[in-house]
Amino acid sequence: MNTNFAPIDLRSDTVTKPTPAMRRAMAEAEVGDDVYSEDPTINRLEARAAEIFGREAAIFVPTGTMGNQIAIRLHTRHGQEVICEARSHVLDWEMAMMAAFSGCQARTVAAPRGILTWQLIQPAIGAKIYYRAQTGLICLENTHNMAGGTVTPLPVFEEIWAGAKAAGLPLHLDGARVFNAAAALGLPVAKLTSGFDTVMFCLSKGLGAPVGSILVGSREAIAEARSVRKALGGGMRQAGILAAAGLIALEEMPARLHEDHSNARLLAEAVAGAPGASIDLEAVQTNIVIFTLDAGDAPGFVAKLKQQGVLASAINPTTVRFVTHYDVDRAACERAAALTVQELKARTV
User: Fold this and answer.
1) DSSP H/E element including 242
2) How far apart, in Å, are the Cα atoms of 330 and each of 23, 263, 286, 335?
3) Which of 23, 84, 104, 329 stands the most exposed, by the fewest C-beta atoms within 10 Å?
4) What pLDDT is recorded for position 191?
């Protein structure tokens, strides 16, 4: 590995370290037992999250996966189907828990750049006949991770909200990076998510907190979510130490997400201008860059980058992913871009 520079970690925005302000807040956090709803810092975080999203209530959970799976359990019953995009996180990266925990199967719908529309969703809804599994939930993702951080625009959502309401179906949003989507569209998250029954968002991705996600919804839904969270082992005690960092993430970090988006664009344009790789530049809308190697061997390519001090992810045998974040500045991304182009050129000699 090149030891002249610190490693540039572009594997995920989950690798960020707590900021100095977060560490101070964690050290000084007022705490109590959250299973008794007595942790004042968690209570403040949940109240603030509900306020920002225009909801009645919110619940702090350890992970986004737990938040999504709680929501699926709330909205469905065993034997139903959950409509989701064919590359969605709830399908590919949550350990088949919609089946294991909620007894539901995924009804997948492939969408260009991961953006589901009502026109694509409607034909997947189970017909109202006794020998056909019924649709219990529509689950969307914004931004869409495996589609490259693509953003679903508000008018697309509005059509889905209206269609789902007419069909009598609940809607959940996996909004792990919804603040990135809101930043890209120039909209408040409350407006961008207003038609969903529940929304999960992560504090520990683009917002930079060390741990935690939030599920927001109605007061009734979140009251039930507390029981489901406990069943999953998510009842925490003096977790205000974590919520203190989450409050800073929620209040201060959304305003700087455009910097990550700009850095991702820099990396994407460097890849687009180099030989040996293919990239959909129009899909690079937030902080994720996904490109395909013409000659394959993404693991080998990632290993070569690691030797140069750039950490990336091989998400399949031919595809590489970069994710920009708070801990990787412009200069680091410029260096990562140069090293990536260098390695791409070396593969085509």
Assistant:
1) helix 240-252
2) 24, 6, 15, 9
3) 329
4) 98
- Which residue, chain included where needed, has tokens 């708070």? 326
Measured distance CA(57)–CA(219) in Å, rounded: 5
Write out the two tokens for 316. 């399949």
Place of tokens 């006949």: 129
What is the mean predicted confidence (pLDDT) over 106-115? 98
Q: Over pLDDT 70: what percentage of the chain?
A: 99
Backbone CA torsion sign across 88, 90, 94, 98: negative
Work out the pLDDT band at 348, boundaries 50, 70, 90.
confident
Query: In the structure, what pLDDT confidence band is assigned to residue 349 with cuts at 50, 70 and 90?
Result: confident
- Give residue 3's pLDDT: 52
Give the containing element (helix H, strand E) for 57.
Answer: strand 57-61
* Confidence (pTM): 0.96
Q: What is the DSSP string of 246-299?
A: HHHHHHHSGGGHHHHHHHHHHHHHHHHTSTTEE--GGG--SSEEEEEETT--HH
Closest by CA to 213, choosing from 335, 84, 53, is 53
Q: In whole angstroms, what is the distance from residue 250 CA to residue 207 CA? A: 7
Token pair, residue 129, equals 């006949």
- 119, containing H or E segment: helix 118-121
- pLDDT, tens only, 239-294: 999 999 999 999 999 999 999 999 999 999 999 999 999 999 999 999 999 999 99
Query: What CA–CA distance (Å, rounded) separates 254 from 46?
Result: 17
Q: Which of 84, 118, 116 is nearest to 102 (CA)?
A: 84
Q: 90-95 long-range CB contacts below 8 Å, 24 or more apart?
A: 90/139, 90/141, 90/174, 92/146, 93/65, 93/145, 94/65, 94/68, 94/69, 95/65
208 CB-side CA count, 13 A: 24
User: Three-state DSSP class for 239?
Assistant: coil
User: Looking at the chain, how many residues does it have?
Assistant: 349
CB 76 within 8 A of CB 169: no
d(C-alpha 337, C-alpha 342), whole Å:
9
